[in-house]
Q: What sequence folds into this?
């Protein structure tokens, strides 16, 4: 059996928690796209784990795979593994030989391009992890793959071709003086970031460690064998549908496919195998967004992130945004910056449901909205005087969409631990009405309702495995 977990919105929907909850029955947890731009939270035994690259199955001692669709920074991978080991978790992580490698210059170029774009307010607000530049090299057929790290001749040959190209891009196109600066704004040592010999030594060592620790796999073959043995596989999507490079709001997207099709391409199992299982869309009961791009249901705004926001907003909207932000902890984990927040958006969710074919929904953060008098949902958009039930293909048109809201009476803050234990019927009635409306509009059943960050703070209606 295969279960795929996909973010239905803009990332941070609570995918890590759902992987952890349902992962009990899984044998293997697989990431199929993205890299250490993700931040997945698992709360286990009162301890909170924030995972970037290591799949969330690590906390339960599962086998974890980074598929060929991932971009892997070996530095951050080993740092994360070492930090987990120090906390008493010793994860079994395998890495696809076909996965691409993030090198220090990818991070440098990510930062440079964002700075250049920001001069015209065009920046995406990336995580700065070098994700975009690594996928560019992959698509340009000049990237390094994990399997190249264990063959010194191949490694050197590839570096000798690609490093001068990236160096020329930094120096000649973007005008960066690599020789004169020790480190860039993010602390990357510029001199070694573009030095073939230094990179060769460092990355050969990572290859040796990956090999020595038995971490290298041909992901598709590995997973197919385990399936044949009757094992259960869970795919852990990172980011979300609207950050998908094809189906998201390009160009304010990440450079991979978080939608369910990505699970096949990014793992080496066929679309039939992935599609033959369950696909669970993780939906936050409201919206949060890190970075730029349109967001029709946004409440108030966040300076530098909300396009065109100048700090002047409706007082009531500002109050609501602050309430949701505080209750939901919607502040950047590293920067502490407030995240953009807004009401649930059904046109967005219809688009997500179609692209990934959700068989079930995980509705998180129902507790976060408790205490509000009124909760709104955009049931459609108005564009050029017409009603639209899904999102337009361009960001320019999307930005012109006016939400048409349906309003719900709010629900009180209750003893959520009790609700989680007692079951769905004990959810406040107004919350049930809200959830049932969303479920019927998306023609998809609700499998689980999140009423708190902990594994036990979930109202489980269906088990996909
Ligand atoms: P992911 O990137 O999709 O895995 O989500 P993140 O871990 O980045 O963000 C989700 C945050 O919300 C984490 O701090 C979770 O612990 C927390 N969380 C998840 N589900 C719920 C929920 O139902 N209620 C509350 N209050 N918090 C939740
Ligand atoms: P998880 O898996 C929320 C956003 C960035 C930026 C855009 C591109 O925790 O849900 P990138 O560094 O990928 O090139 O940035 O995507 N972004 C995320 N937002 N959650 C994430 O991951 C994200 N990963 C990337 O803020 O707008
Ligand atoms: Mg996250």
A:
């Amino acid at each position: 059996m295969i279960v795929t977990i996909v973010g239905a919105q803009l990332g941070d929907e609570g995918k890590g928690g759902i992987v952890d909850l349902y992962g009990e029955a899984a044998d293997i947890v697989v990431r199929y796209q993205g890299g250490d731009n993700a931040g997945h939270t698992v709360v286990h035994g009162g301890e909170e784990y924030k995972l970037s690259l290591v799949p969330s199955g690590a906390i339960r001692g599962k086998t974890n795979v980074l598929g060929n669709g991932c971009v892997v920074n070996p530095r951050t991978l080993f740092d994360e593994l070492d930090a987990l080991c120090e906390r008493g978790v010793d994860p079994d992580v395998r890495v696809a030989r076909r996965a691409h490698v993030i090198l220090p210059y990818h991070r440098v170029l990510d930062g440079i391009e964002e700075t250049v774009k920001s001069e015209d307010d065009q920046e995406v607000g990336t995580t700065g992890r070098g994700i975009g530049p690594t996928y560019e090299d992959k698509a340009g057929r000049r990237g390094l793959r994990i399997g190249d790290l264990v063959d010194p001749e191949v490694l050197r040959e590839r570096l000798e071709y690609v490093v001068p190209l990236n160096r020329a891009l930094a120096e000649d196109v973007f005008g960066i003086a690599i020789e004169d600066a020790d480190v860039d704004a993010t602390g990357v040592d510029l001199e070694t970031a573009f030095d073939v010999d230094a990179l060769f030594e460092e990355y050969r060592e990572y290859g040796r460690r990956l090999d020595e620790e038995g971490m290298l796999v041909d992901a598709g073959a590995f997973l197919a064998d385990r399936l044949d043995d009757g094992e259960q596989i869970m795919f852990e999507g990172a980011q979300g549908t609207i950050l998908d490079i094809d189906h998201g709001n390009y160009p304010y997207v990440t450079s991979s496919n978080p939608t369910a099709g990505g699970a096949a391409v990014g793992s080496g199992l066929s679309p039939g195998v992935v599609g033959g299982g369950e696909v669970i869309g993780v939906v936050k009961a409201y919206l949060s967004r890190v970075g730029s791009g349109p967001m029709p249901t946004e409440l108030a705004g966040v300076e530098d992130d909300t396009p065109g926001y100048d700090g002047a907003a409706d007082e009531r909207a500002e109050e609501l945004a602050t309430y949701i932000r505080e209750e939901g902890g919607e502040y950047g984990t590293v920067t502490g910056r407030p995240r953009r927040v807004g009401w649930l958006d059904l046109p967005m969710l219809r688009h997500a449901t179609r692209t990934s074919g959700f068989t079930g929904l995980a509705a998180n953060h129902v507790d976060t909205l408790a205490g509000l008098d009124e909760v709104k949902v955009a049931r459609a958009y108005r564009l050029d005087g017409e009603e639209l039930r899904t999102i337009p293909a361009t960001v320019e048109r999307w930005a012109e969409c006016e939400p048409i809201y349906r309003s719900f009476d709010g629900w009180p803050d209750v003893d959520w631990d009790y609700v989680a234990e007692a079951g769905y019927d004990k959810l406040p009635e107004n919350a049930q009405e809200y959830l049932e409306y969303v479920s019927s509009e998306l023609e998809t059943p609700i499998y689980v309702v999140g009423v708190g960050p902990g594994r036990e703070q979930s109202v489980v209606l269906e088990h996909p495995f």
